[in-house]
From TrEMBL:
Name of the protein described by the UniProt record: Permease, YjgP/YjgQ family
Transmembrane segments: 12-30, 50-77, 98-122, 299-318, 325-346, 358-376
Gene source species: Lautropia mirabilis ATCC 51599
Protein origin, superkingdom: Bacteria
Entry's Gene Ontology cellular component terms: ATP-binding cassette (ABC) transporter complex
Protein keywords: Cell membrane, Membrane, Transmembrane, Transmembrane helix
Localization per Swiss-Prot or TrEMBL: Cell membrane
Nucleus in keyword set: no
Amino acid sequence: MKLMARYLTREIAGGIMAVLLGFLGLFAFFDLINELDDIGQGGYRLPQAVLYVLLGLPSHIYELMPVAALIGCIYALAQFAQNSEFTAMRAAGMSRQLALRGVLVLGVLLAVLTAVAGEWIAPMAEQRAQQLRMDVLGKGSGVGAFRSGLWLKDSVRGPDGQRLQTRFVNIGTLEADGGLSKVAIHEFDTDFRLTAVIHAEHGRYQPAHNGQASSWRLEGVETTRFNVSRTQTGYDALHAAVERRPETVWVSDLNPALLSVLAIAPDRMSALALWRYTSHLKENAQNANRYELALWKKVVYPLAIIVMLMLALPFGYLQVRAGGIGLKLFFGISLGVGFYIMNGLFSNLGLINTWPPWLAVSIPSILFLALALVMLNRVGRT
């Protein structure tokens, strides 16, 4: 029995890898087509474009694994049914529970590998890909920004956690090495009255060392401070004082690791980066629903691989007269596309209707799990 289970698992794994490689080749081709418009700008040539596409493959592996698992498993099981191998295995004593156990073991292994790829390999490769584009094109990152650049909210809090100052930071360009260009900092007091506007040409991050807190060294700084004073006539007068310095130190909770996530789509960030950025947004009373949703996807998405394999297993019990490999693959592809569409649909519905993020990302997997259990129960009676 164990020999048959290992054989079944090995063949299913081979089918999944074949489908995954096919998908990766297709997506890599389309990605390369999208890069053709930028080839020739700056130092961006075909080798750099190919390297950029290759660095994006780990993210595609993470995104495609559930669909590849479903289609690959259906393909392998359909071949077994076509050659009557699955019928022979059942006649030799392989029960539905044993087949399900073998599929679940493979599913858990693929889920773990996918989680590792999504947490470490894909985010690092994606960040390196974005840095490559910025280096060779000679451009900084303004992803997710307005025309005026990146806008962030930063708060200064006292030892007791009370807000002392609110700052709105505008970054014109986020450099590939983590530096900043064309920085504007608008500082407000606890009553949201503007107290200062700081403009800086460049900014470099200085990590904490020798007991000193981490900070930013701003260069080419012009500071305009605003003070309100009562005049002799009883009216409030606004006074502005301009100060220019070659450089100054700016203490902030913002750091290159936090800023780097702005150059990467939330779905391609690591769970740790998502958690850190979500915490930062919540601390500054900003809407973090989009990043919370992406964080829960990181938790639920690898588990969807197990659900897909459970959904594919009943196809092995269908007889040849119920349809050949082509028809079963058609159903498998339809189910995979349906799962992909439902993931995007319920994610958007969750954002619009402010559903709990864990519920919005779990609904497709729950529905497909229910379908898999119904199909397994039905084939178990045959």
